[in-house]
């Protein structure tokens, strides 16, 4: 029998899986740019105001470059890679914490030849992500470090 979130205990399984948790598409295909990323919803209880998800990006993949009014509280759980928050690009590694404020461009990239997995807490009720338009991408690319990040050759 498949375990559900109502069970008090669910085991961590090989391959960064959890008992009773499906590995899902990151988003609907074609809805936004992304590459080689999956989503597992660990906690999504109507009694909670937040959800906890595990995302995993294969080497060379990335999440969507986006912003929204809701915030993210992230802990890297596997591997390392690079992350953009606002105008700051950083390497991130297992157990590092990342806070994404409201209205802030952000993206995770698995840039180091290994998978990058992270646990992300998010508001249960949240607005739709916005994608950058051409002018906004141009403005971001004015910073050479962000251009290098977006082109998968972070410094
Ligand atoms: Mn987001």
Strand % is 35-45%
CATH topology: Jelly Rolls
CATH class: Mainly Beta
In this structure, how is the largest beta sheet organized? 8 strands, antiparallel
**Structural classification:** mainly beta
Helix content: under 10%
Rounded Rg: 16 Å
Which small compounds were modeled alongside the protein?
Answer: manganese (II) ion
- The best one-word shape is globular
What report would you give on this structure?
This protein is mostly beta strands. It has a single domain (10-150), classed as Jelly Rolls (Sandwich), CATH 2.60.120. Helix content is 10%, strand content 41%. The strands form 2 sheets. Strands 3, 4, 5, 6, 7, 8, 9 and 10 form an 8-stranded antiparallel sheet that branches. The chain has a two-stranded antiparallel ribbon with strand order 1-2. The chain is globular and about 50 Å long. The model has no long low-confidence stretch (mean pLDDT 95). Bound molecules: manganese (II) ion. Manganese (II) ion binds at residues 66, 68, 72, 106, 129. Manganese (II) ion is lined by residues 66, 68, 72, 106, 129.
């Amino acid at each position: 029998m498949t375990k559900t979130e109502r069970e008090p205990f669910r085991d961590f399984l090989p391959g960064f899986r959890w008992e009773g948790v499906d590995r899902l598409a990151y988003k609907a295909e074609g809805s936004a740019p992304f590459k080689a990323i999956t989503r597992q919803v660990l906690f999504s209880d109507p009694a909670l105001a937040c959800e906890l998800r595990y995302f995993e990006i294969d080497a060379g993949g990335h999440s969507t470059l986006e912003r929204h009014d809701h915030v993210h509280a992230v802990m890297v759980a596997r591997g390392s890679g690079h992350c953009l928050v606002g105008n700051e690009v950083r390497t991130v590694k297992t157990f590092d914490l990342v806070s994404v404020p409201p209205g802030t461009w952000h993206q995770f990239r698995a840039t180091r030849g290994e998978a990058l997995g992270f646990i992300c807490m998010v508001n249960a009720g949240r607005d739709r992500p916005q994608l950058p338009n051409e002018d906004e991408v141009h403005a971001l690319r004015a910073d050479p470090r962000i251009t290098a990040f977006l082109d998968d050759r972070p410094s």
